[in-house]
């Protein structure tokens, strides 16, 4: 069993919950946070029922509040010491036509996904780094969950992709900036994942009770991985010290095609876009 400490954000549901439970099963001591206190309590109950690992702290934090995030990180370190690993999973999904997407939805998804990630850096990076680490120094881990949408051109994902692509770009810099100071940075690019976000996702201007939309969601869920599978892929990728962690082969293939077979990639994206337009046709809200 591992006796390391880890922070997990977004631990109330979906990937964050599954990741927290998986780490607890491995014997981790955990600090869990989310904006949903009831969901956090449910995760704690599941971990305690398993009888493995240990929850050191449970805290409701809004990751869009920079002061709250930094204060929480400082207090956590002051009371429990520097965590070995930080997994930032919390995020939201908002899709829509870029021509009509309301400004407040652009800012909301960027505030949560991108600026929330920035706040995690501001809160933890200074604590995780070590001056002049040696070969014997235990390397710490800083892990961010981005998305396949941060890499490939999925239809109606402009705002969401801006937020997740920003996380990828930030991590690309941090991996080199923090490596000499004893911190390994990892970024995860999940594809389709069957989380509660599937039923609560905001698709701007689209009636989600429409039959075509419901059919598309069923197809998505049939193709999607479970949060438990994604959590296992994240842990495996971090253990293998992979920087960019794909949790499904289709996204790894899409990334390869984007670089090495651009004609095939462009054709696939055109088909996806056409399919999305078909789904949205007749489901537009007035």
Report on the architecture of this protein:
The protein has 286 residues and is α/β, with parallel strands linked by helices. The model has no long low-confidence stretch (mean pLDDT 90). It has one domain (5-280): Rossmann fold. The chain is built from ten helices and nine strands. Keywords: Oxidoreductase. GO terms for molecular function: oxidoreductase activity. Belongs to the short-chain dehydrogenases/reductases (SDR) family. This is SDR family oxidoreductase.
Structure at a glance:
Belongs to the short-chain dehydrogenases/reductases (SDR) family. One of its GO terms (cellular component) is membrane. With 286 residues, this protein is of the alpha/beta class.
SSE topology:
Elements: E1 5-9, H1 14-25, E2 29-34, H2 37-50, E3 54-60, H3 66-80, E4 85-88, E5 94-95, H4 103-128, E6 140-145, H5 158-178, E7 183-189, H6 197-200, E8 202-203, H7 211-223, H8 227-239, E9 244-246, H9 249-260, H10 262-280
Helix pairs in contact: 1-2, 1-8, 3-4, 4-5, 9-10
The count of DSSP E runs of length 2 or more, i.e. the number of strands, is 9
Q: List the helices and strands in order.
A: EHEHEHEEHEHEHEHHEHH
State Rg: 19 Å
Categorize the overall geometry: globular
Largest sheet: 7 strands, parallel
- The N- and C-terminal alpha carbons lie at a distance of 56 Å
> CATH topology, anyone?
Rossmann fold
- CATH class label: Alpha Beta
Order of strands, main sheet, comes to: 3-2-1-4-6-7-9
């Amino acid at each position: 069993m591992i006796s390391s400490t880890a922070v997990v954000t977004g631990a109330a549901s979906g990937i964050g919950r599954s990741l927290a439970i998986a780490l607890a099963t491995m014997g981790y001591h955990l600090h869990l946070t989310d904006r949903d206190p009831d969901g956090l309590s449910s995760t704690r109950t599941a971990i305690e029922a398993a009888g493995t690992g240990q929850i050191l702290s449970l805290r409701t934090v809004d990751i869009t509040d920079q002061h709250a995030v930094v204060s929480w990180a400082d207090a956590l370190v002051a009371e429990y010491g520097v965590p070995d690993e930080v997994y930032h999973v919390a995020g939201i999904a908002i899709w829509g036509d870029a021509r009509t997407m309301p400004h407040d939805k652009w800012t909301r998804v960027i505030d949560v996904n991108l600026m929330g990630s920035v706040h995690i850096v501001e809160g933890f990076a200074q604590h995780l780094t070590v001056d002049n680490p040696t070969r014997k120094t235990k390397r710490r881990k800083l892990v961010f969950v981005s998305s396949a949408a941060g890499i490939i051109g999925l239809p109606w994902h402009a705002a969401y992709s801006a937020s997740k692509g920003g996380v990828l770009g930030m991590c690309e810099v941090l991996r080199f900036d923090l490596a000499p100071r004893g911190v390994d940075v990892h970024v995860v690019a999940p594809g389709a994942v069957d989380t509660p976000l599937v039923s609560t996702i905001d698709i701007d201007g689209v009636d989600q009770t429409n039959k075509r939309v419901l059919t598309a969601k069923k197809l998505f869920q049939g193709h999607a991985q479970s949060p438990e599978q994604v959590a296992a892929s994240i842990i495996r990728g971090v253990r293998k010290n992979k920087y960019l962690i794909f949790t499904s082969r289709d996204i790894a293939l899409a990334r390869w095609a984007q670089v090495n077979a651009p004609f095939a990639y462009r054709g696939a994206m055109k088909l996806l876009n056409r399919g999305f337009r078909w789904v949205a046709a007749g489901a537009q809200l007035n």
